[in-house]
Amino acid sequence: MRHIVTRSICVFALTALLFAIASAEGKKNCQSAGGMLMTNFGAIDANTTMGVATGDLKGAVAATILSIDGQIGGPSLVFTVQHHWVTESGDTPNFAKAQASANQVAPNTLRYGIVSYPVHLNGGTGKFANASGDLDVIGEADLASGQLVFRYSGTICYAQRD
Hints:
Helices cover 15% and strands 58% of the residues. With 162 residues, it is an alpha+beta fold.
């Protein structure tokens, strides 16, 4: 009888834990997000871009290049970047470091097409507090002119306000 009671308590505790996890996940409001980024190198320093974001994350955006794998002018590069973002309403989404894989669009140029650029949102301030999400980014980087243009799309899950 004692084993049955102990098992019953364990099953009840496990069920309660799973229900609590499901309830916490159920308090997220997931929405599609998309827009465009346009930035320039050299606005802050040689490794940091600065520009504007349109769409669901409309505001100001910058990215600091932490490292570049590959030879500039070569056929492919991988940029490791840290994003800095403030939306028009003053909220700040926080993003994990990201890697942008780029392929040269024509030989002997410094123009690269972005072929893989996943970006992960992990919280922030205002409506981004306890938010999470994943964005996919495509675009082009012209390293000769310092101009970059990107399109982002994905899903952001916002925490429900009680």
